[in-house]
Amino acid sequence: xxxxxxxxxxxxxALSAELGAQLRRGGFRVxxxxxxxxxxxxxxxxxxxxxxxxxxxxxRGCDVNCALEIRRVAGRTPIVLVAEVSxxxxxxxxxxxxxxxxxxxxxxxxxxxxxxxxxxxxxxxKQHKTSPTTTLEGPGRMIGDSAALQTVRTRLCRVAxxxxxxxxxxxxxxxxxxxxxxxxxxxxxxxxPFITINCAAIPDTLFESELFGHERGAFxxxxxxxxxxxxxxxxxxxxxxxxxxxxxYGQSSMLxxxxxxxxxxxxxxxxxxxxxxxxxxxxRNLEKLVEENSFRRDLFFRLAVTxxxxxxxxxxxxxxxxxxxxxxxYFNERLGMSVERFTDEAMAFLxxxxxxxxxxxxxxxxxxxxxxxxxxxxLIVELPASFxxxxxxxxxxxPSERExxxxxxxxxxWNKSKAANRLDWSRMKLYRKxxxxxxxxxRPRLQTN
Length: 449
Hints:
Layout: E1 5-9, H1 13-25, E2 29-33, H2 39-45, E3 50-53, H3 66-74, E4 79-83, H4 88-96, E5 101-104, H5 109-129, H6 147-160, E6 166-169, H7 176-185, E7 194-198, H8 204-212, H9 229-232, E8 237-241, H10 248-260, E9 262-263, E10 272-273, E11 277-282, H11 286-291, H12 297-303, E12 306-309, H13 320-335, E13 341-342, H14 344-352, H15 358-371, E14 379-380, H16 385-393, H17 399-411, H18 416-423, H19 427-436
Parallel strand pairs: 1-2, 1-3, 3-4, 4-5, 6-11, 6-12, 7-8, 8-11, 13-14
Antiparallel strand pairs: 9-10
């Protein structure tokens, strides 16, 4: 028998009693209130495991902004919406408001309780991943609560306190530099320097001078001594960005430094000891480069003592709404504007796109969109023409997924719950996919003359 506490918010006494009884039969403790006004005081006394919003919390325009108010009070507590009827507009609004799942009043009782238990299971997983031991400081933050991003956060937290070298991999725009800075700020070296070196930007002729430094008179034009970036980072952290583009000469020099823990400054007879932690990043497949003899195997193993891979945005699209909200707020504050959101029509394009440029591309798109707005605009209606052209020419998922979705809907006579179960998806994922592939929520009807 579950001992989880469910908070039910519903104005209708009859419906509140019906839903409450159903939850209690499912083995849950239930607290019932008529509206969210009492939430702050209630949360001082109890901490519900799931919040259930009844149909009365939705207005005729499918407005579920009450969930945003609940989020401010309840934090990460899962929210389940019980709606009279379902629709694509409601699904999009629910996603935007941070609602985790929703069911309809007419849903089978088993589906309602199963949805609650699924939220509880997911919540326990996230609490485990974001416990106080996995709190990360940083100059920004990784936006989103997807399982993929939770795994990255946990991995970052585990290795930040060690002194091991770390290799961060991921496509362009996934946030490798942000991850490196978070590792540094949560390490024992956070009070020492953090030096970034773009490995693709330093030619061999300047490599030793830039990284190791030189003595006065070491070569023509060396009128004074120069410390070099590696010595400047002594005691701290060196971030080797684009390590996959480092030349063979640079690789050899870097390997000697890492093996001997010293640098040989140009014009100096004796070496200088150095104590740095190396964090390297690349968007290239280093293991493949090693097989092709384009990257030194011994340097690869020195760098990849610990590896962290940052997932592309297309594999964590459930974070898209949170990312869009974050950047809208960011540019509102930066430009002194009051834009609320993208329209549903614009959101359909954004959800269907696969974001090959990842989070950086998304940020650039929001910035480009803001550039076309007037100070009085509150909604983003039009997307840049260049983006729309890319979006129209780009298919975000294989046709087989759409075919499976349509097949499941046809077999179940357009019953969303049964179709979701057949696909082993949550109801919210089913609606996201239906919106993505522009599939209506009602079964198509034959036209008759």
